[in-house]
Amino acid sequence: MFYFFLFVNDIPDVLTVDSYLFADDLKMFDTSKNANFDKMEKSLSSLSTWSNDWSLKVSPEKSECLHIGKNNALLSYSYDNLIIPQITLVRDLGIFYSNELSITCL
């Protein structure tokens, strides 16, 4: 397992947006006031290139997009020609986060 962490540790270096890695989970986000579609799409493309270079498959079917904030443009993103589904609620480490930033713990 230790080698896996060394293996994926450079993923944030190829992205143009902010990101967090936790085990085999990657969260990519852009906190700018004006959503930058090109910046996120470039990061998704870079992730795809990294994935192909290292022969490590990323599962786009397990990916989701959560838009936060009232003035969010609700842009649609894709990974390897698959549209990433937009959601309004996500569970992360037992905590639910909504697109309106309400938080619920289990």
Write the layout of secondary structure elements.
Elements: H1 2-8, H2 11-14, E1 18-22, E2 25-29, H3 37-53, E3 65-66, E4 78-79, E5 82-83, E6 86-87, E7 89-92, E8 95-98, E9 103-105
Parallel strand pairs: 3-6
Antiparallel strand pairs: 1-2, 4-5, 7-8, 8-9
Notes on the protein architecture:
This protein is α+β, with helices and mostly antiparallel strands and 106 residues long. It has one domain (2-105). It is 26% helix and 27% strand. The chain has three helices and nine strands, in the order H-H-E-E-H-E-E-E-E-E-E-E. It has helices spanning 2-8, 11-14, 37-53, and strands at residues 18-22, 25-29, 65-66, 78-79, 82-83, 86-87, 89-92, 95-98, 103-105. The strands form four sheets. A three-stranded antiparallel beta sheet has the order 7-8-9, with no helix packed on it. Strands 1-2 form a two-stranded antiparallel sheet. The two termini are 28 Å apart. The mean pLDDT is 85.
Helix content: 25-40%
Mean pLDDT: 85
The N- and C-terminal alpha carbons lie at a distance of 28 Å
Radius of gyration: 14 Å
How do the strands line up in the largest sheet? 7-8-9
Sketch the major β-sheet. Answer: 3 strands, antiparallel
Number of distinct beta strands: 9
Strand content: 25-35%
Domain unit count: 1
- Which residues form runs of ≥5 with pLDDT under 50? none
**What is the H/E order?**
HHEEHEEEEEEE
Number of helices: 3
**Pairing-aware structural class of the strands and helices?**
alpha+beta
The dominant shape is globular
